Amino acid sequence: MLTYKFSGMAFAIVALILSAAAPHRAVAQSPIPSRNTGNNSSAQQVELAVPFGQVDGQLVINGPYLMFLDSQQSAASFVIPRDDVRNLTATGSEMTLDLARPVQDRGGATNRLVFRLANPEGGLAYNQWFHQTAVSPTGEANRTPDAAPRASAPGTLSLQVKHDHRIGSDMGSLLITPDQMAYESVTNVKDSRQWNYSDIKEIHQDGPYKLKIVPFSGDVYNFDLLGQGLAPDQFQMLVDRVAKARLTRH
Fold first, then answer.
1. What is the mean pLDDT of the chain?
2. Range ranked top by mean pLDDT from 39-43, 45-49, 185-189
3. φ, ψ for residue 145 (rounded to 5)?
4. Which of 56, 175, 198, 248 counts the highest number of beta carbons within 10 A?
C-alpha cells in the first residue's frame, strides 16, 4: 500500500522557512449539489438477464457512461463507456447492448447484455444516449458537449468510482482539479462531497484501483476506481498538491 502521511513537525519547519501566508480556508468536506442536466444523469429500474435467471438493479446514465448498479451484490456492478457500445437496440421493455469489450457481471465475462426495463418507454433515454453524436462538415462523427469527458483542463481527471460504506455502497464520479477533489454520487446525493487539498490529512493508494481520502474533519472516503485506474504519476500529482496546500494551512 502506498501511503502519504504528513508530519506536523516537518511541515512546521518548512512553513517557518518559507514564511508562507495562509489564505482563507473553506469548510472541509462540504456537500455538493447534484447537477440536473436532463438525460445527462438519470436512472431506471431494470432486470439484467444472466445464465441462471435475472439480476435486479438500476441502469444509470451519467454523461458518457452507463452504470449498472446490482441491487444485491454491489461488487457485481459495472460501468460501460459509450465508446465501448457497438450497438444498442430497445424494443418495448427489452434492451440489448453489444459491446466492443467484455464486462464482468454475476454470470461472468460477456460482450452482450440484455436488460428488461421496468418502464417499457424507458428505452428512449438510452437510445438518445447511444446516438448522441454530431457530424462535422468533414463527415466525421463527434460527441456533443454533453458527451465530452468532463476532465479536459490540464491537471484535471474525472474517474468513475464506487464509494464503499460500512454497509453497502454508492456510485458516481470523482473529479480531480488543480484546486480540489469532488465526489458526485449519482445514486445518493447526500454522499456527495468536496475537499480542498488543505482539508486532506492523509491520502492512500492500494494499487491503481483503490483510493482513500482521510480529511481533517468528516468521514473517511474509500473509493474503488471502475474502468480507469490511477497511475503512479497521477497519484504523485495528488500527493504534491496536498503537500503544497499543507504549507499554507493554519
1. 76
2. 45-49
3. -55, -40
4. 198
Q: Phi and psi for 76 in degrees, rounded to 5?
A: -90, 5
Reported CATH class of domain 2-31+149-247? mainly beta
Residue type at 197 in one-letter notation? Y
Per-residue model confidence (pLDDT) at position 133 = 53
pTM above 0.70, yes or no: no
What pLDDT, on the 0 to 100 scale, is given for residue 30?
Answer: 40
The class level of CATH for 38-145 reads: mainly beta
Residue 34 has phi, psi (to 5 degrees) of -80, 155
C-beta separation of 151 from 158 below 8 A: yes
Taking the CA atoms of residue 117, residue 120, residue 125 and residue 130 in that order, the dihedral angle to the nearest 10 degrees is 70
pLDDT band at 39 (very low <50, low <70, confident <90, very high): very low
Name every residue whose Cβ is closer than 8 Å to that of residue 212 and which is 6 or more positions away in sequence.
Answer: 202, 203, 204, 205, 206, 220, 221, 222, 223
* Ranges of each domain in the chain: 2-31+149-247, 38-145
pLDDT category, 153, cuts 50, 70, 90?
low
Beta bridge partners of 100: none
pLDDT mean over 5-22: 37
Cross-strand pairs, 89: 96
